[in-house]
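thread from #wetlab-drylab

HS: before we spend reagent money on co-crystallization trials with nicotinamide-adenine-dinucleotide, can we at least see a predicted complex? here's what I'd submit
DV: go for it
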Amino acid sequence: MAEGVFGRSDAEIDLLVRGMRSGIAVVGFGYIGTVIGAVLADRGWPVTGIDVRQAVVDEINLGKTTVPEPGLGELVADSVRVGRLRATTDFGALADNDFVIVTVGTPLGPDFEPIVDDIKAAAKAVGAHLRVGHLVILKSTVPPDTTENIVRPILEETSGLRAGVDFGLAFCPERLAEGQAIFELTSIPVVVGAVDERSARACSTLWRHALGVDSVVVDDPRTAEMVKLADNLWVDLNVALANELAKVCDRLGMDALQVIEAANTMPKGGRDANILRPSMGVGGYCLTKDPWFVNHLGQSVGLELAIPRTSRTVNDTMPAYTYGLLTELLAEQGKVIETSKVAVLGIAFKNNTGDCRLTPTKYVVALLEESGCQLSVHDPWVPDEEAHTVTKIPLTPDIESAVKDADALMVLAGHREFHQVPLVRLAELTAAGCVFLDGRNSFDPAAVRAAGFIYKGIGR
Ligand SMILES: NC(=O)c1ccc[n+]([C@@H]2O[C@H](COP(=O)([O-])OP(=O)(O)OC[C@H]3O[C@@H](n4cnc5c(N)ncnc54)[C@H](O)[C@@H]3O)[C@@H](O)[C@H]2O)c1
């Protein structure tokens, strides 16, 4: 039975946390839960993953994970082997843990509204096993007031305990990016919005010792909930800006990356401008939905916001735009798409991950399939099962076979493996005058051209 962390003095919490005697339960062992759980276990904490999916639990207990994050497999294997990480479907395991971190999913509904059903179910299950001294930390991305108006009443009703009195409660958004999740988890400051000061301080103590990061304490959970939405709206809008600049630069025959790099040297508001990079699309579980959460939030208070809709619309045009670039490039080579061989490199939603959830690459692949071209698809990160969600064409396991005799290479995810094959080797394998469409602007145009390809990036 855990000793309880909430309600103790700061010095006691500090000692308890530093002694790594506090167990940490992570409820929802999907992408984010597994990253957090494995990192905390690797850093010395006893971690219990709780998930409703038996298959996920079984896999973790075998020391395995299908979450396609660089370095995560090793952390899971090692932590399970030394006995610091285990998983279960039984919420009774909460009794052995002082901290309860909730990372269940919050998908988008058919009318672009947030679905918080899993949050409610998880809160109910946690509440049924809640004890005095627990600190519950919600990390899922949620609309403002979810912690206070949905999670808190459920926890209090099911447990008979009071938040801020008997147990601690806070919202701490997860702001890591897939592909560099482990590094970011242990380097990005954590925003803490708690129902009371003691919960906030206990959270900050945990993050300082467990992850080695600072906390940014805001007034309350709803502010912290809004912070996460503001961050992701900023990313989506910023990429939309870069994408529209890229389209203009394409027409004008300019290099958008040069424009952006130079534009970013302008100081503004105490720091430099930071226009992000254009690409063939924005996807994944967060950026495709969180702007809609903001849009929905605006509607709920009688506001018709323009920005979320605009950023989503602009970014959603990019796959078709990228496909259009390909057909133009082929035409310049006297070829048509119908009789060309096209090799797609990378179908994950971004570089160096195998996650295909809401990947923009799916729309490019669909257009290629419809075109009747001869298509091969290669992605070293994506398991076959996940690949089926993008295309029915079986993945070509090795890059050399995938690109053989291709008239066009389309890099839709710029995985590091693609940079390890010498460009001249790729050029030897492909057809003469092969087009190299770099959908992630992850290659050096001069090097690609020097190898004999016709290079084109997004906006360059
Ligand atoms: N994926 C990202 O890069 C990212 C980054 C920051 C924040 N987030 C946010 O974090 C949250 C989780 O995202 P994810 O990508 O890990 O989702 P996910 O779908 O991979 O994982 C959610 C997990 O919760 C489990 N679950 C569902 N209901 C449950 C319940 N009642 N009890 C216990 N487990 C339950 C599911 O089985 C699943 O394993 C979302 O709100 C997301 O918006 C995600």
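DV: Residues 27-33, 50-53, 56, 103-106, 118, 121-122, 125, 140-141, 174, 176, 178, 285-286 surround nicotinamide-adenine-dinucleotide (CB under 6 Å).
HS: ok that's useful, forwarding to the group
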